[in-house]
Write a structure and sequence with these properties.
The structure holds two protein chains of two kinds. By secondary structure, chain A is α/β, with parallel strands linked by helices. Chain A has two domains: 131 residues, Aspartate Aminotransferase, domain 1; 265 residues, Type I PLP-dependent aspartate aminotransferase-like (Major domain) (Aspartate Aminotransferase, domain 2, 3-Layer(aba) Sandwich), CATH 3.40.640. Chain A contains 14 helices and 17 strands. In chain A, the strands form five sheets. Chain A has a seven-stranded mixed β-sheet, sandwiched between helices. In chain A, strands 13-14-17-16 form a four-stranded antiparallel β-sheet, with helices on one face. A two-stranded antiparallel ribbon of chain A has the order 1-2. Chain B has a single domain, classed as Sufe protein. Chain: A (Alpha-Beta Complex). A three-stranded antiparallel β-sheet of chain B has the order 1-2-3, with helices on one face. At the A-B interface, helix 12 of A face loops of B.
């Protein structure tokens, strides 16, 4: 069975104009997809949790360890020079990938969580210094705005920052369809707002948020604009200039790269105005026993030996994604999502949370199956080789909003197929039989 | 089928027809235990009558394993002495945490032996133990409370 093409109105760019990808060829690049789980060919539907890795990423990391391994930014020897070139080369690849105007706007972190915390702690540090850039200073009466569909990583750092500074945390609520309720945007984002941080594509509902209205209001009131791109950057073309975003956080392991490396994009003038967060080696300009001055960004925010080989792996992942084409990936996922939404709707007792149509959403679909606890659903699916995520998906407020303790989540990527959706639906039928 | 080891008839039966479910009066101690990784929670009350566990009542939400194990707990410890009840808790915890290495004692654990299969699913061990750890906690508090009031 193949996915049904989406009908596009006449006059619009037609289906054949869309860049395509060859899913069979792509699957051959991912060694893990060949393995079996519980006697079945693995059906990996958990890429929103972490993606699988193509051979090219694994080999790039192995080659770096075998041929170029040395520390970066401090050695005059050949290996150190090669390693530094590889690390900084990865930074340039990431910058190009998201349309950043310079590699200096890319800070490598441990993951997206650390990237968001980096901004929060830099603002916290700036708030203690009367001479700091006023855009970064926060106090009682000031407000930070998030939404009810955020991952905990885009809630908790701001709660902690508000506790430290006396600022107030506010949030967008959600509509029944799982979209941002923008009806009160002009009140919610106001002259007191210092920063708005929202998710671009929800990790639990799959919603792809439209940012233009929110962006315009943010610029009207002079606040900062941050996007959590963890579930967006791996799946669709990203251009930070187009979005006119001040900060963007995302992580390597969800975009075919290794764990242990994430990215904070920040506009150059903002990064330059930010005080350091972690102190140590590599982030300084000069150090005396009394005080220190600090390196310009991005080094200022990369204290200590960075995840060098992980950066190399992320660079290789960016090369892979670029070669396949982000437009092609986005369309592949859109077709699969349309197919999956239709297939899941055919399962009796299945309720989808989030947008029920393949428009304005990513390839992440969460659902409840006839009140059967997601742990039980996930266990039976695993018995059939189908790997999904169950639980609150680090977005407990979203679960509370929809009145459930947990959800079962399917998240698709460039290597998934309609046959795998069929396997999922068969396994869901099996689950219903067991708990009937 | 793989999951038959886990979802035995006994477990599904307790899940669909839970024994002793619902919070009852009177009680000595009430505790709430949660599993933060999955959001499962149980409210559990213990009523002691001298040395005896007079009642264990509970309410909660969670997967079939956590709900069925609460039902089995109720059956296994109600009417037993505190010492007997706690030795059953220890045996259950040992069996579930053993990765399949401990041979379950059917005489002691009765329906509880159905959970032996859980030992092979490390991600589900906490589900099976949720209400048992709640019972241990509540009983310890009840015993201590009684001691203090004497």
């Amino acid at each position: 069975m193949t996915a049904t093409p989406i009908v596009i109105p006449a006059g619009m760019p037609q289906y054949d104009d869309i860049p395509r990808l060859d899913v069979a060829r792509i699957r051959a690049d991912f060694p893990l997809l060949e393995r079996e789980v519980n006697g079945h060919r693995v059906v990996y539907l958990d890429s929103g949790n972490t993606s699988q890795k193509p051979r090219s990423v694994i080999e790039a990391m192995t080659e770096h360890y075998e041929r170029h391994n040395a520390n970066v930014a401090r050695s005059v020897h050949t290996l150190g020079t090669e390693s530094t070139a590889a690390y900084e080369g990865a930074r340039q690849k990431v910058a190009t990938f998201i349309g950043a105007s310079s590699a200096e706007e890319i800070v490598f972190t441990k993951n997206a969580t650390e990237a968001i915390n980096l901004v929060a702690y830099a603002i916290g540090n700036a708030s203690l210094n009367p001479k700091a850039d006023p855009r970064l200073r926060l106090g009682p009466g000031d407000e930070i705005v998030v939404s009810e569909m955020e991952h905990h990583a885009n809630i908790v750092p701001w709660q902690l920052l508000c506790e430290r500074t006396g600022a107030t945390l506010r949030w967008f609520s959600l509509t029944e369809q799982g979209r941002l309720d923008e009806s009160n945007v002009d009140e919610l984002i106001n002259e007191r707002t210092k920063l708005v941080s929202i998710v671009l594509v929800s990790n639990i509902l799959g919603t792809a948020n439209a940012t233009s209205r929110i962006h315009d209001r943010i610029r009207e009131v002079g606040a900062l604009f941050m996007l959590d791109g963890s579930q967006a950057v791996p799946h669709r073309p990203m251009d930070v200039v187009d979005y006119d975003v001040d900060f963007l956080a995302f992580t390597g392991h969800k975009m075919l790269g290794p764990t242990g490396i994430g990215v904070l994009y920040g506009k150059a003038d903002l990064l330059a105005a930010m005080p350091p967060v972690l102190g140590g080696g590599s982030m300084i300009e000069t150090v005396t026993m009394q005080r220190s001055t600090f390196a310009p960004p991005p080094a200022r925010f990369e204290a200590g030996t960075p995840p060098i080989v992980e950066a190399v792996g992320l660079g290789a992942a960016v090369d892979y994604l670029t070669a396949v084409g982000m437009e092609a990936i986005a369309w592949h996922e859109k077709e699969l999502t349309a197919y999956a939404l239709e297939a899941l709707a055919s399962v009796p007792g299945l309720r989808i949370f989030g947008p029920p149509t393949p428009v304005g959403r990513g390839a992440t679909i969460s659902f409840d199956l006839a009140g059967i606890h997601p742990h039980d659903v996930g266990q039976i699916l695993d018995g059939e080789g189908v790997q999904v995520r169950v639980g609150h998906h680090c977005a407990r407020p979203t679960c509370v909003r929809f009145g459930v303790p947990a959800m079962t989540r399917v998240s698709l990527y460039l290597y998934n197929t309609a046959e795998e959706i069929d396997a999922l639906v068969r396994a869901l039928e099996r689950t219903r039989e067991v708990f009937a | 089928m793989q999951f038959d080891q886990l979802y035995q008839e006994i477990i599904l039966d307790h899940y669909k027809k839970p024994r002793g479910r619902g919070l009852r009066e009177p009680f000595d101690v009430e505790v709430r235990h949660v599993n933060p990784t999955c959001g499962d929670e149980v409210d559990l009350r213990v009523r002691l009558d001298g040395e005896k566990v007079a009642d264990v009542s509970y309410e909660g939400m969670g997967c079939s394993i956590s709900q069925a194990s609460a039902s089995v707990l109720h059956e296994l410890v109600t009417g037993k002495t505190v010492t007997e009840a706690l030795s059953r808790v220890d045996a259950f915890v040992a069996m579930v945490g053993s990765r399949g290495l401990v041979e379950p004692d059917e005489e002691l654990l009765e329906d509880g032996v159905a959970f032996a299969g859980v030992a092979k699913y490390p991600a589900r061990v906490k589900c099976a133990l949720l209400s048992w750890m709640a019972f241990k906690d509540a009983t310890a508090q009840a015993v201590a409370g009684e001691g203090a009031s004497r």
